[in-house]
Amino acid sequence: MNKIITKEEVSSIFKDGMTIMAGGFMGVGTPQGLVSALLEAKVKNITLIANDTAFIETGVGPLISNKVVKKVIASHIGTNPETGRQMIAGELDVELVPQGTLAERVRAGGAGLGGVLTPTGIGTVVEEGKVKIAVDGREYILEKPLRASVSLLKAYKADKAGNLIYHRSARNFNPMMALAADTVIAQVEQVVEIGEIDPDEVITPGILVDKIYVHGGC
Predict the structure, then answer these.
(1) Rounded to an integer, what distance in angstroms lies between the CA atom of residue 23 and that of residue 166?
(2) Is there a contact between 52 and 73 (Cβ–Cβ < 8 Å)?
(3) Taking a C-beta distance cutoff of 8 angstroms, is the pair 120, 100 a contact?
């Protein structure tokens, strides 16, 4: 099966009201070409799961600026003032999640777990409305798993089977988000033939990747 698709084919995948995960950390490792395709699809009311909302004009920030997102689940929003403005104005629902908890919730979604127990947030607003469970005399918050309809990844290189190699710190949240979505789309800078990538270098195996979008640059 040919996994390589065009920008127009990418855009056709997106629908109103979808939950979408995007890799990246402050825009580094964010698939900018896929963000552009999502904007061109002119969908609305999506739920966005990402580590952060980056900046107004970079990373996933343009999705916020163009008001494509109705809810964002992220570990911080401070670098994008538009996210904060929309939140305060009641235009955007923001769920702030401690970064380690966010990672584990995505991992739990990928592993089919019912949730994770963490002490992070006990005694703070983070625990409000959540189940608390005591284990060996210590309280934990039950954090539910996160999954998405579509996961948008950024990798450096893929082979035609979808095996992915990331470039240094651009790896960040991408590998775990490859596990927790119904459809996984990887933006890559180059595609090589099957067998040209050393198996020891593969971080995300091709079995997890449904579509490959070739787009140059970071």
Answers:
(1) 12
(2) no
(3) yes
Of 211, 88, 80, which Cα lies nearest the Cα of 152?
211
Query: Model confidence over 28-39: pLDDT tens digits?
Result: 999 999 999 999
Q: Which of 204, 167, 185 is nearest to 4 (CA)?
A: 185
Buried b (16+ CB within 10 A) or exposed e, 1-13: eebebebeebbeb
Q: For residues 58-69, b (16+ Cβ closer than 10 Å) or e, as one string? A: bbbbbbbbeebb
208 close to 182: Cβ distance less than 8 angstroms: no
Q: Which of 53, 38, 113 shows the shortest CA–CA distance to 83?
A: 53
Classify 113 as helix, strand or coil: coil
Q: Which CATH number fits domain 7-113+144-214: 3.40.1080.10, 3.40.50.1820, 3.40.470.10, 1.20.1640.10?
A: 3.40.1080.10
Select from 57, 13, 41 the least CA-distant residue to 184. Answer: 13
Give the whole-angstrom CA distance, residue 165 versus residue 149: 23
Give Cα separations from 200 to 19, 101, 122, 155, 163 (angstroms): 32, 29, 40, 16, 11
pTM of the model: 0.94
pLDDT per residue as tens digits for the range 194-205: 999 999 999 999
Calpha distance 79→56 (Å, rounded)? 8
> Which phi and psi angles does 100 have, rounded to 5°?
-65, -40
